[in-house]
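[Meeting: bench + compute handoff]

Bench side (C.D.) handed over the final construct sequence. Compute side (W.E.) agreed to return the predicted structure before the next meeting so the bench team could plan truncations. Sequence as handed over:
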Amino acid sequence: MLRGIHPILGPDLLHALRSLGHGDEVVIADANFPVHSMGPRVVRLDGVDAVTVADAILTHLPLDTFVDQAAFRMEVVGDPKAVPPICETFADLVRSLAGTFEITPLERFAFYERAKQASLIVATGERRLYGNLILKTGVLAPE
């Protein structure tokens, strides 16, 4: 039993998140994302939406302040300027929990290539299209 840990973060995901280091990336993937063909370790949270997962992870994970871009979303195929509502929600979460970061859009296949280099993929049950997010791990500030 632990206090102060978001309730959806079970032992497998907690271990995976705690194992990340500065600059490692974690993918929060929707139900349509090809998680098991990407290569990185996958932790499944079926039945949990991607926004809830992003909230839980960002409650504990600092984003990288040494880079200009530390959060990424997938662009809408055929309409790269469109911002799906779920991506607006991701942006609000990132701003409220991680600071002044903006979410950088990536073309679909560029997003897949970046996901292949990630340290961890969290597979969610998210059914909204484009419910995918990549977060770059930062550092814990000295006390």
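W.E. noted at the follow-up: DSSP finds four helices and six strands in the chain. C.D. will use this when planning the next construct.
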